[in-house]
Protein 1
Amino acid sequence: MQDDDELCLCFHVTRRKVVQFIRVQKPKRASQLSECFGAGTGCGWCRPFLRKLMEEANPEAVNLPGPEDYSQQRAEYRKHKSS
């Protein structure tokens, strides 16, 4: 996943915005990432990825799935969540 790829697909929040928010705001809890344009408050798919970025000392170096895999996995998540 590149910096300008969307991490929160519900609210179109990019990885770059989340990393910058973490760097500047230094949230103490993962739930505080919702203050970054609502990230993580929609379907919930991105929450583990948001938490992973927050827990790392260098969030820029965290390896996340590419945008195609990410959106496909989210579609499966939402399909199973709604059943």
Protein 2
Amino acid sequence: MKSKSKRPKTGYNKRGAKDIREAADWCASQNIEEIECMVPDLAGVARGKIMPVRKFLQVGSMNLPLSIFYQTITGDFPDLEGIVGTVQSDTDVFLRPDFNTLAVVPWANDPTAQIIHDAFLPDGRPVEESPRQVLRRVLKLYHDKGWKPVIAPELEFYLVEKNIDPDYALKPPTGRSGRPETGRQGYSISAVNEFDALFEDMYEYSESQGLEIDTLIHESGVAQMEINLRHGDPLELADQVFMFKRTIKETALEHDIYATFMAKPMALEPGSAMHIHQSVLDAQTGNNLFSDPKTGEPTPAFFHFIAGQQKYMPAITSLLAPYVNSYRRLSRGSGAPVNTHWGYDNRTAGLRVPPSDAENRRLENRIPSSDANPYLAIAGVLATGYLGMIEANQPAAPVETDMSETPSHDMPYSLIQALIKMERSEPVAEILGQQFITAYSRVKQHEYETFMRTISPWEREFLLLSV
């Protein structure tokens, strides 16, 4: 366990600053020595630089090559022909700090802060390939209509025993009892208590960063947990998911285990999701646009929002399920929804309307995997809901039966299929940006091609001597 003696004061919970002057005061109050200057890439990985706080406060921004938004999860780069040239991809973009995201790094040995940046081209235009910009682009559409979307993510993950050889399957870790879990412990308090020390640190680290955790539960998988974050602004919540993923991974490492957001880390266990609850408010009155203010009944806008997600879900699936492994979770009989149906409190439907009063009426999208980039997943679902409201689409009838074995015919069942559907959807490309769509597709195709170079045990077992 790392020594905490040099860490910033854990009782100081403020996150964010108005400007660089307030940031300087905050850093001084926390005795900050270094600052991690981060930008989320297409995978949701933190890229950037670490610099002394004095230099950060002097320069106010930093440069990185545009290619950070074209890097695959393996660290490679796709063929950039037709998108950006090799020379252009290596030219600098300018990263400006969003002071609202300033927070401590509570697991660091020395007093350290972190701050998320936005990316801009030399002429001042935002970098369209940046996931944070993609989400900002969607939110502007809502803003221009006088609408304010509100989201709440639910994030599932596994705790696993340290695994340094990828050829071996993952195993559940040993808790305080000295024994690993051997059976399903859904919603078990004692199963969560097995990792009390880890979760106490997680709560302390989250609080010091201003991450607003609502609930912690044990999910149905072996050592599978779920964290629910409080509802709020979509960009702020995407930032919180981005920061929470770092937090729980670092906390787990301090306890000599791994935390993984891989969508399907173990073949015989359920996959991990990132369910996204969504509602839309009138920006002036604060009223929920999904409920009639007089009767409390659902409004046409609510059904249009559902219909848009039904219609355009196949086109954004690659944002919600971004890796080959994601589709192992989205398979028939896996327990995850594999359809675009909707229903009232029906968890086998891809779109669920949870029980609520009129003020809190919302839609839960249950398709996204926990491996999804939170900025892109949130941008995707809000974009489809927006299209439904603009086009006044009408949803199919709600389903009441078990749909877990009934996939929708138009839902992609592989990454390549999902990319094709995204590339062919002009409305989605217009909202998210054609430059982003092209870049994202090229990166994901390269990742798929890399995966296809690996021969699996299944192929050796069933094809080696049989074909």
